[in-house]
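Duplicate of #3305? Posting structure anyway:
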């Protein structure tokens, strides 16, 4: 086996891999929650620091953001994944009903789907016969080919939990330096928070690259740039409001 091949192609290992089937992936939930947590919390830190407010204000607003916005994001992601799951079951029931009411029409749909894949003649009819011999197999093919339904159902609870944990863990990083306000000044804490949050952005980007074709440093720099632009904007708004309001 070549060193750059991701998995073995021995018959027994292929059979085991196919038997296990594809697994649900919650990477996007972690990336989504982590980036948003780091961006929003650091934006609050940068905005409050830009307005030259006290460290206590930074910690209070940051902690409130971690809990309230983190829960909101988790609930929103839970609801979104749950809606996808509900829609999948709705489509499944619809296809079962169509098969029961008009089986020949559903067979014709299967026939045209496989004809578009290059099947023809006896091979096409045999494929239709095999697919429609089992209602479970028949419905699965229709869900994936006609409706574009995913092959793996994701858990709304896990998606929501992963989003919240990522938001909380990554979002807490910008607040850490301000916990030591008795030892370092606010400007120094802000510099430390900027460096640490930048490292979080870059780390999330490099992690994301493992599931893409982008080079790790390109993905890391892209995420770093997005986060820093958001933070810089918030800092500028805070400084501008300070000059307007005169706090």
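Output from current build:
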């Amino acid at each position: 086996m070549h060193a750059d091949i991701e998995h073995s192609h021995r018959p027994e290992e292929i059979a085991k891999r196919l038997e296990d089937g594809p697994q649900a992936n919650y990477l996007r939930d972690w990336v989504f929650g982590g980036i948003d947590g780091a961006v929003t919390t650091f934006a609050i830190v940068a905005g409050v620091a830009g307005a030259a407010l006290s460290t206590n204000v930074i910690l209070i607003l940051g902690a409130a953001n971690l809990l309230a916005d983190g829960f909101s994001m988790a609930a929103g992601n839970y609801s979104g994944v749950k809606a996808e799951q509900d829609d999948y079951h709705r489509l499944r029931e619809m296809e079962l009903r169509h098969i029961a009411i008009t089986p020949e029409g559903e067979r014709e749909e299967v026939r045209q789907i496989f004809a578009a894949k290059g099947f023809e003649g006896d091979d096409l009819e045999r494929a239709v016969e095999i697919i429609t011999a089992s209602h479970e197999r028949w419905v699965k093919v229709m869900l994936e080919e006609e409706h574009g339904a995913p092959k793996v159902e994701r858990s709304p609870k896990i998606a929501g939990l992963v989003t919240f944990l990522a938001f909380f863990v990554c979002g807490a990083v910008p607040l850490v330096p301000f916990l030591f306000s008795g030892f370092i000044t606010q400007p120094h804490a802000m510099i430390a928070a900027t460096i640490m949050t930048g490292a979080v952005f870059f780390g999330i980007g490099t992690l994301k690259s493992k599931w893409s074709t982008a080079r790790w440093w390109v993905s890391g720099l892209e995420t770093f740039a997005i986060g820093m632009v958001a933070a810089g904007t918030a800092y500028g708004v805070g400084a501008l409001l300070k000059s307007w309001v005169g706090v």
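Confirmed duplicate; merging threads. The chain has nine helices and no strands. The two ends are 67 Å apart (CA to CA).
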